[in-house]
TrEMBL record:
Organism of this sequence: Forsythia ovata
InterPro entries: 3-OHacyl-CoA_DH_CS, 3-OHacyl-CoA_DH_NAD-bd, 3HC_DH_C, 6-PGluconate_DH-like_C_sf, ClpP/crotonase-like_dom_sf, Enoyl-CoA_hyd/isom_CS, Enoyl-CoA_hydra/iso, NAD(P)-bd_dom_sf
Major subcellular site: other
Gene Ontology annotations for the cellular component aspect, listed alphabetically: peroxisome
Biological or metabolic pathway of the protein: Lipid metabolism; fatty acid beta-oxidation
Family: In the central section; belongs to the 3-hydroxyacyl-CoA dehydrogenase family.
Domain 3-hydroxyacyl-CoA dehydrogenase C-terminal: 494-587
Entry's localization field: Peroxisome
3-hydroxyacyl-CoA dehydrogenase NAD binding domain boundaries: 313-491
UniProt record, GO biological process: fatty acid metabolic process
Single GO molecular function: oxidoreductase activity
Name of the protein: Peroxisomal fatty acid beta-oxidation multifunctional protein MFP2
Domain of life: Eukaryota
């Protein structure tokens, strides 16, 4: 939100209709200023004799994106007083707007989300453009709709649809909203206001129904059916999000309104909203919301006033899993792509992979056949560099082989234009080494995607000391355009995500060799909120990849790695993970993972090799202990990444953990979660384990210094320090 205050304006036409406009760019969010101004404008319209009816709309083709999220942080921090419970839902919407003696109509263009839709539902009718988005996405922030939405939406669209819209946070388009009963009519953008004015006057003259959303009952399912729907929703929610309370609170609040009437429901909503606003889940999710939007702010790069250059054409080297995934992501966002391979067979296989990626979207109904053909036509294959003479960016995605990559970058320098960005998708090789034989080090940059590249939301942008700020700005822009969250990191082994998380698998192996059960570890980690535990993850990525990346860390950080022979021993017996149907788990035809009793013998063998003895304490760890022994080493490594200036800020590591590794967003990311436990506690636990089980757990100096002061890990003492 800009420093200029948000406001509303009121204009009365000759027809006696007052147009109240919400103004708070960019999305007309409902800050406290806007809400107070809305109430004043509304009261004025009700007092004035020359006003017969009211239309509420938003400036610049957007109704309202909802409550101003930056105010949440201020209210949580105690910097701003929260509006008193029920001020918006009861006083403004239920008792002023809905109960008014003058009819009001919401004219919706662009978006009406969260509080924006709730204001619209307070009106007596809604007119929308066909493509406007209407929804209540509050649950994504750990709260529930707080401006009466839990009561109004079920009464307009029925309980089942209202639950679906709130629990999934998915908006509906104007066209669909009409058939649901959420919107009364559709109008084009230029006819919107006129249609709404006429509608408001028609209500006044009795030509259209005068409906108070809060007291409408014809859409509510009969009580018996309603109870069944709510019961089913609770069961689904417990299954889908066992660690989250707020979706269940939302269901309770909806139920209260159905059983005890809308007023009781509004009071319960107001109380629940206040409580949830101060919950850890809400604080974590609001932190992630802003952290995700803050990754593009990079001191010394994004503050130089540089504009991103236009990228008209991209070339990709290598049509394997990564190359084809990156190509898919690019053509989906309308970038023409050249995919280069070494021979016809590989090239065809790469093109077929892209085709399959797009086909699966068509099959799921996410893409029309026409769009598929248009998108696929953006891809061209090549076997040489001839067509590279006019590309603006190249992304190299070949196998991890230093001399091969060096050769490629020398060739690229010869064939590509001098402004062309030379990017590598390497996940383990030093970029300085890759560009060593070129004179183009200022335009060499890492573009590290996560597999599958067209699905995973994170893009690590890796800069060396020589990468020019312009090239970083360009890649940040491409990242945003292909709907990735880009995070800028420095150049080191594993960059940010893989480096932070290498202790994740290693800690798990250390525990297993000391006597902890493999499957108990995976269960505890999944229960904590990760998509899967470390062993199931090893099976998924395959032992080849696990060993290749693991060995990089053993090589580069020998003093703090735990060397286990467990995976190599299993590999000798042709176990390689899910692809061979045997890894840490056994897999049936449907790829369902089942514990494998044979694993015991490999664990015993690995113990013999490393000379580790079983520690009885580690055979009966609680879930909490397992989570801490596996994640505290990750926190420790994240501290190093921050201290070395590899990451720009702690919030970037939070986003990297959530989007790159599936760390639960409702815990706020790795550093935010660590700070909720406290640096002192984490450091003392690591010291205790370090004494018992060796240097792997030893806290780094950054963590130890923070703990000594009882200071949070996230705040860097010198924000200017961004050593590469």
């Amino acid at each position: 939100m800009s420093s200029a205050k948000g406001r509303t304006t009121i204009e009365v036409g000759a027809d006696g209709v007052a147009i109240i406009t919400i103004i708070n760019p960019p999305v007309n969010s409902l800050s406290l200023d806007v809400l107070n101004s809305l109430k004043e404008s509304y009261d004025q319209a009700l007092r004035r004799d020359d006003v017969k009816a009211i239309v509420i709309t938003g400036a610049q083709g957007k109704f309202s994106g909802g409550f101003d999220i930056s105010a949440f942080g201020k209210i949580q921090g105690g910097n701003v007083a929260a509006p008193k419970p029920g001020f918006v839902s009861m006083e403004i919407l239920c008792d002023t707007v809905a109960a008014a003696r003058k009819p009001s109509v919401a004219a919706i263009d662009g978006l009406a989300l969260g509080g924006g839709l709730e204001v619209a539902m307070g009106c007596h009718a809604r007119i929308s453009t066909p493509n406007a988005q209407l929804g209540l996405p509050e649950l994504q922030l750990g709260i529930i709709p707080g401006f009466g939405g839990t009561q109004a939406l079920p009464r307009l669209v029925g309980i089942a649809k209202a639950l679906e819209m709130m629990l999934t946070s998915k908006p509906v388009r104007g066209q669909e909203a009409v058939s649901l009963g959420l919107v009364d009519a559709i109008a084009s953008s230029n006819e919107l206001l006129n249609t709404a004015r006429r509608w408001a006057l028609d209500i006044l003259e009795g030509k259209r129904p005068w409906i108070n959303s809060f007291y409408k009952t014809d859409k509510l399912e009969p009580l018996g059916e309603a109870r069944e729907i709510l019961k089913f929703a609770r069961a689904q929610t417990r299954k889908r999000a066992p660690n989250l309370m707020h979706p269940l609170v939302c269901i309770d609040v909806i139920e209260e309104g159905i059983i005890s009437g809308p007023r009781a429901g509004l009071w319960k909503e107001a109380e629940a909203f206040q409580g949830l606003l101060h919950s850890d889940t809400c604080k974590s999710l609001v932190h992630i919301f802003f952290a995700q939007r803050g990754t593009t702010k990079v001191p010394g790069v994004s503050d130089l006033g540089l504009k991103p250059r236009r990228i008209n054409k991209v070339a990709i080297l290598g049509g394997g899993l990564m190359g084809s995934g990156i190509a898919t992501a690019l053509i989906l966002s309308n970038y023409p792509v050249i995919l280069k391979e070494v021979n016809d067979k590989f090239l065809q296989a790469g093109i077929d992979r892209v085709k399959a990626n797009l086909k699966s979207r068509v099959k799921k109904g996410n893409m029309s056949q026409e769009k598929y053909e248009k998108t696929f036509s953006l891809l061209k294959g090549a076997l040489d560099y001839e067509s590279f003479r006019d590309v603006d960016m190249v992304i190299e995605a070949v196998i991890e082989n230093v001399s091969l990559k060096q050769q490629i970058f020398s060739d690229l320098e010869k064939f590509c234009p001098p402004h062309c960005i030379l990017a590598s998708n390497t996940s383990t090789i030093d970029l300085n080494l890759i560009g060593e034989k070129t004179k183009s080090q200022d335009r060499i940059i890492g573009a590290h995607f996560f597999s599958p590249a067209h699905v995973m939301p994170l893009l690590e942008i890796v800069r060396t000391q020589k990468t020019s700020p312009q090239v970083i700005v360009d890649l940040l822009d491409v990242g945003k355009k292909i709907k990735k969250t880009p995070v800028v990191v420095g150049n080191c082994t594993g960059f940010a995500v893989n480096r932070m998380f290498f202790p994740y698998t290693q800690a798990a192996l250390l525990l297993v060799e000391h006597g902890t059960d493999i499957y108990q570890i995976d269960r505890a980690i999944t229960k904590f909120g990760m998509p899967m535990g470390p062993f199931r993850l090893c099976d998924l990525v395959g032992f080849g990849v696990a060993i290749a990346t693991g060995s990089q860390f053993v090589l580069n950080f020998p003093e703090r790695t735990f060397k286990s022979m467990l995976i190599p021993l299993m590999q000798e017996d042709k176990r390689a993970g899910e692809t061979t149907r045997r890894g840490f788990y056994a897999y049936d035809e449907k790829r369902k993972a089942n514990p494998d009793p044979e694993i015991k013998k490999y664990v015993e063998k690995a113990r013999e090799v490393s000379g580790v003895t079983i520690d009885p304490k580690l055979t009966k760890l609680s879930d909490k202990d397992i989570v801490e022994m596996i994640f505290f080493p990750v926190v420790n490594e994240a501290c190093r990444v921050l201290d070395e200036g590899i990451a720009v800020k702690a919030a970037d590591l939070d986003i990297s953990a959530v989007m790159g590794m599936g760390f639960p967003p409702y815990r706020g990311g790795i550093m935010f979660w660590a700070d909720s436990l406290g640096s002192k506690y984490i450091c003392s636990r690591l010291e205790e384990w370090s004494n018992l089980y060796g240097g792997f757990f030893k806290p780094c100096s950054y963590l130890a210094q923070r703990a000594a002061k009882g200071a949070p890990l996230s705040l860097s003492e010198d924000p200017v320090k961004a050593r590469l």
